[in-house]
Structure formats: C-alpha cells, structure tokens
C-alpha cells in the first residue's frame, strides 16, 4: 500500500467551525465558512484574534521562526504584536463591519445604479432625468446617511419584488443572480428604511439649500417604497389584506414621515428649481395657473360627487372652524382639486384598448400622480390614518390612477389592493358606501 500523505492538523480554527466540526480556513476577520453562513465569527473579536496571532507564532515551523535568545530577555520580539496590527483591534467589536453586510450593500448599490433607478418617477417621459437618478442621487447619498439608507432600502425592495413575483408586465431589465430569497431582501428593505427615518427626522427640522435636494430625492424614493408595500404584502393577488388595514396602515405610516413635504418644497422652491430636480418640479406649474380641465364627462361627474360630499360632511368646519386652512373641509377640498388635476393630465378612456395604449405610452408624464401624495399635505395624511371616511374615499379614487401605472414594478397590484381594502372598511357603513365606491372598484376590475 502506498504511504498515507502526511498533513498538518491545526486547532486554530474559529469557535463556530469547531462547534460545527467543519474545516476552517483560519483566515480572519471572518473565516470563509462563517461568511458563507452569515455567522458571527470568533476571529472578528479582539481577544480571539490576539490569541490566534500569538498561537500562530508559537506553533510556526522551525524553518520560519527565529530561535529565542536565552540570555537577553529584552530582545524577545516574537511575542509582541506589531504597531500596524494593534490599532485595528482596539476598536469595539460593534464597530467592525461584517463582511456579509459590506457585500450586501455593494450589491444593493450596484443594483440601484444599474437597474432600480430606471423605474423612478417620470423617467420614461423625461430622459434627461436619467443622470439625476443614476448619478446624482447615488453621489448625494454619500453625503447624507438618510438618503444612502433610503436608496439601499429601495434597491432591496426592488429585488424582493422581482424574486417573489416574476411578471412579464413588470420591467425586466435585471441581470445577474441574487444572494438569497425574496423574504431576506424584503426584511433588509424594511431595516434600511427604518435606519433612514432615524436620521431623516432630525434633518426635516433643518432643511437648507445644501440638503434640500437630498431631502426631496429621499421623499420620492420613500413614496415609491410606500406605494410598493401593498403589492408585495398581498403576494401579488390584488385582493384585500387578510389583516384589516394592514397594507393601508403600512403606507400611511410611511406617508406620516413625509408630512410637511409640500411646505418644504415651497420654502426651498428657489434652490430646488435651480437644482437637478427642476424638471420634476415643473409638473405642477399648470395646476397653479389653472390652465387645465377634465374633458371626460364620467370622470368629471364622479369627482364632483366627492366635492358635494365634502360640502355635506365638512362645510361647517370650513366656515366656522378656528383654523380654516387645517379644517377637514379645506384639506379635503385641496386633495380633491389636486386629484382633478391628475385626472385631467391623464384621462381614463372608457375603451379598454385605448386604456391599455395610454398605460404603455412612453410620452405620458405620470410623475405628478405620485406627487399628489406630497401635495395633498400632512393634514390629509393624518385624516387617512384616523380612517376618516371621505378622506379614504378620495384616496381610493387616487388609487385608480395608481393602478394605471402597473407597468412600474412599485405599483403592480398596489392600486387594486388599496381600493379593495378601502372598500372593505367603508362598506361597514352600509349600502350607501358600497354605491360610493362602485366607480373606483369598477375601474380597477373589482366586483
């Protein structure tokens, strides 16, 4: 029999590999096995690294070690860590960036810059905004932590959507493989969004010309993030959530962080109009001039019913309230007026073939539909969270426009889900509310 090949045994593997009884490659700060399984490797702790380094020096082969002198103890350098190594391990272990986290963030940034940016607002109608979303926003995110985390959250949610519910209607510009399942990326998206809000809350109190573009960009990404949630949480079925108000409350909670966005835009109007987002802000210029009207009689009649209901429910609040601007009447009236503008900019044809042509047209600017969320104002968002019936009904009519943006991944099924959930809540008020939601349900294909 041929002699067995000799091999060196080592007891210097990390604690995790020893417990699992697998071969450790003994390379820190995180060994290959721990990187693969996303484990906290003992090599990443200061004590373990120091002990490992000392052990390696002691057990080194005779050919690679210098004999220790016997008569001069002060000349024993082999047991001392070099100055270049020591500072690295003086930092607390909590500050050490996990290798797996770094890889994930690089993947998400790459995914955003090569793919996810394409689906941002109005990109199909305004090709000049490509540089804004692909270059300016990532560059600006390196200066503002809230924007960086918001960008990573948006990219993670995009991957979660694509890996969970493949659909030929959704943009199919993605290449490459993914590290894990949809649920992993969905969880990471929520984590990064929470991190973004932690720092964004303080920034809202101090918006300046230097950060107003970052605030505006983050607000848009957050609105798209919020819109995408219902379509992902329902599993792509387009029906109401099994938990009452689950999807609606998710989207309203995110909108709550953007309360006052319209005021911020007004205060920073000069800086924003001089910056890279000037093209996006021009969408509502026609609204302020009043040079628009709804040409579809069916749409005009339906939206007029919302105005009649607002007069019936809240007119006294608008006339005699201590603060007319913040009353339900004034808040709903502004939301309805903005909604009429959105419908005027994008008519909803009665013929299905024409409707599909409008949906897929590259010449239609649809960014103002998303802008309605910010322009409607913080008080309207508060009324939605309080489940105000008329505010929910107005919101359901906006969801019809959202359903017409189905070719964007962040809207797929969200409009239908929102209409279904709002209807399920309002229908508890009796047949009169079933009639009031009938038009919205019909437009999104619900019974």
Topology of this protein?
Blueprint: H1 15-20, H2 32-37, H3 46-58, H4 99-114, H5 130-141, H6 145-164, H7 182-203, H8 212-233, H9 246-256, H10 261-267, H11 269-273, H12 278-281, H13 285-289, H14 297-320, H15 328-345, H16 352-360, H17 367-375, H18 378-385, H19 389-403, H20 414-426, H21 431-436, H22 438-443
Helix pairs in contact: 4-5, 4-6, 5-6, 6-7, 6-8, 8-9, 8-20, 9-18, 14-15, 14-19, 15-17, 15-19, 19-20
Mean of all residue-level pLDDT scores: 75
Report the top-level CATH class of the domain at 11-45. Few Secondary Structures
Q: Into which percentage range does the β-strand content fall?
A: under 5%
Run of helices and strands: HHHHHHHHHHHHHHHHHHHHHH
The CATH homologous superfamily of the domain at 11-45: Zn(2)-C6 fungal-type DNA-binding domain
* Overall outline: elongated
DSSP helical segment count: 22
Specify Rg, calculated over alpha carbons: 29 Å
Largest sheet: none
State the helical fraction: 55-70%
CA-CA gap between termini: 80 Å
Structural class: mainly alpha
In brief, what are we looking at here?
InterPro entries: Sterol_Uptake_Regulator, Zn2-C6_fun-type_DNA-bd_sf, Zn2Cys6_DnaBD. The protein is mainly α and 447 residues long.
Molecular structure report:
InterPro entries: Sterol_Uptake_Regulator, Zn2-C6_fun-type_DNA-bd_sf, Zn2Cys6_DnaBD. This is Zn(2)-C6 fungal-type domain-containing protein. There is one protein chain. It is built from 22 helices and no strands. It has 447 residues and is an all-alpha fold. Helix 5 (130-141) packs across helix 6 (145-164), helix 6 (145-164) runs antiparallel to helix 7 (182-203) and helix 8 packs antiparallel against helix 9 (246-256). The longest helix is centred in the C-terminal third of the chain and has 24 residues, at 297-320. The chain is elongated.
